[in-house]
Design brief:
Radius of gyration: 17 Å
Strand content: 15-25%
Mean pLDDT: 82
Distance between the termini: 26 Å
């Protein structure tokens, strides 16, 4: 959140949402945590917390105020694994983990008479897909990649690592940085 102050700087919030389970949201959250200094990862979900998983689990309908008391004071990047919270807060970056083109969906679309399974997405999923700053496996303009890097206060080279990890191709880069 752009207005949340903690420590010496402004807390940057990254939300990772997905088309469902097993899309790699936790993998991305842990990658970002390893890349960004003073990061803190939380997950909102319905599953029970496992002891081997060190990521704090909050109820799926938790608000930012439910999470804020647990954030360590020196945190610069809050990484939240949840799609629902994206409608409650304005993250500095919203990442959407899409299903691969050939992946089956929960509802393969046949029940609705659709031939394309991707068209059978829930309305909330479509909102996330349309609102996301970055969508795994898709493309982003060079200008937008720079804007996201600026919002997160990270170097362009770091942004390039994030885009590579998400398998996002950059289009229209004049300087060849991505």
């Amino acid at each position: 959140m752009r207005d949340g102050r903690r420590g010496v700087g402004v807390l940057k919030t990254i939300v990772i949402a997905g088309a469902g389970s097993k899309t790699g949201k936790t993998t991305v959250a842990l990658f970002l945590e390893s890349l960004l200094p003073h990061s803190y990862v939380v997950k909102l979900g319905v599953r029970t917390e496992r002891q081997e998983n060190r990521i704090p689990l909050f109820p799926v309908d938790a608000d930012f105020s439910d999470i804020s008391d647990t954030i360590p004071p020196d945190t610069e990047y809050l990484i939240i694994e949840s799609g629902r919270i994206a409608k409650k807060i304005k993250p500095d970056c919203l990442i959407y983990m899409d299903l691969p083109e050939d992946a089956p969906t929960e509802d393969d679309g046949r029940a609705h008479g659709l031939e394309d399974p991707q068209r059978a997405r829930k309305e909330s999923t479509l909102w996330l897909l349309d609102t996301a700053d970055l969508v795994s496996g898709k493309k982003v303009s060079c200008q937008k990649a720079w804007e996201i890097a600026d919002r997160l206060a990270i170097q362009k080279i770091l942004m390039g690592k994030i885009l590579d990890f998400l398998k996002i191709k950059v289009k229209g880069c004049q300087l060849g940085l991505f």
